[in-house]
Design a protein that fits this description.
The chain is α+β, with helices and mostly antiparallel strands. The chain has two domains: 38 residues, Single Sheet (N-terminal domain of TfIIb); 98 residues, 2-Layer Sandwich (GMP Synthetase, Chain A, domain 3). It contains three helices and six strands. The strands form two sheets. A three-stranded antiparallel sheet has the order 1-2-3, with no helix packed on it. The N and C termini lie far apart (37 Å). The mean pLDDT is 97.
């Protein structure tokens, strides 16, 4: 895996990924940013949510659960002093499907958290990570 991050101006950077995608990142307006892109720490949180969601969907599909939707809503707290690492992250999964078994959803989330989601497991080295979920009948 590789990427490139190029300074554009001020606190704005252009990132290119090894898979050929581009995105703009920018510091907060308090740091001189103009809100032209997400903050780098937001992208870390988004990556963790994407990684965990990918796992949950795949595990439920492989378990023959009739999943039709999955949304992960993450809320994080950061340390007040530098380095301002994440100290708490809460994942709330909203899983939609037909006759989904709560124990299957809980298992999928647990497996992601404990075994498969590299991003969450890495962030768990500095942050207390919690999860909950709700099931919506399709």
């Amino acid at each position: 895996m590789e990427c490139s991050v190029k300074w554009v101006d001020g606190v704005s950077f252009l990132a290119s990924t090894g898979s050929g995608h581009f995105l703009t990142m920018e510091g907060a307006p308090t740091d001189g940013g103009q809100n032209r892109g997400p903050r780098p720490m937001e992208l870390i949180l988004v990556g963790a949510g994407g990684c965990a969601s990918f796992d949950v969907v795949l595990i439920l599909q492989r378990g023959r659960q009739a999943i039709t939707g999955c949304e992960a809503k993450l809320v994080a707290e950061r340390a007040e002093t530098d380095p301002k690492v994440f100290t708490k992250i809460h994942y709330h999964f909203v899983v939609t499907g037909k006759n989904l078994k709560p124990e299957a959803v809980e298992r999928a989330i647990r497996l992601s958290a404990e075994k498969y989601c590299s991003a969450s497991i890495m962030l768990g080295k500095t942050a207390e990570i919690t999860h909950d979920f709700e099931i919506v009948e399709a």
